[in-house]
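Pilot study result, target chain (253 residues):
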Amino acid sequence: MSLGGHLVELRRRLMISAAALLVAMILGFFLSDPVIAFITEPVRKIAEARGDDLVGLTFSSVTSPFDLRIRIAFSLGIFVAAPVWLWQIWAFIMPGLTRKEVKYTIGFVASAVPLFFIGCYVGALVVPHVIELMATFTPEGANNLFEAKQFYDFSLKLMLVVGVSFVLPVFLVALNVAGVMSGRAILKGWRVAILIATVFAALATPAADVVSMLMLAGILVVLFFAAAGLSMLFDRRKNKRQKAEGLLPDVGV
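Predicted structure:
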């Protein structure tokens, strides 16, 4: 295909993705009320605990309420339309991939996408605890009036951070497949991985909720060791194949 043909194909894929995103955003706009009710649940709990009405979301401009709903609609649209735009990206790059690269890419996407959504779900469970914990640092006599835009951005970004953290082990496997890191090199970093997982879980969960912290840290550690084990398995298979081809001396792995 010529360069012009590639550009035409890219435009077509982008148009399909944009149309799917627009439809999903319209649907997300009408679903914004349940989302707002969900993310503001910790705010209502803080207000009930203090027994006053000086806790809640604030809108600093006339258009802020509409802007918040558009932000929610866009976020929901990205998630709902994900199967469409992911397929369009895949369909565009697939003709340039070898059969082996296609196999690895399918495996990567099939692993990364579910882990990302699971991570976002875990993040959604963690966000209310973080907000309630941060509110405990409010000085006596002060009020918690959360600016709506910043409140939503904080909640969304924290969910995305947890979602991405669940996908990081898949990137470790991808680096191993690409020959950048060996399985042994990944496994050697287990102490650092456990420390990072524990610190992250401690920051992402309330201080008094030790069970949630251990569960989140445990999930991240298990994912890390699964990535290291899978990478070592790939290395073993690669070494056996190279031995069979006479590219490596016949020594134990």
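One observation from the pilot: The mean pLDDT is 81. A full batch analysis is planned for the follow-on phase.
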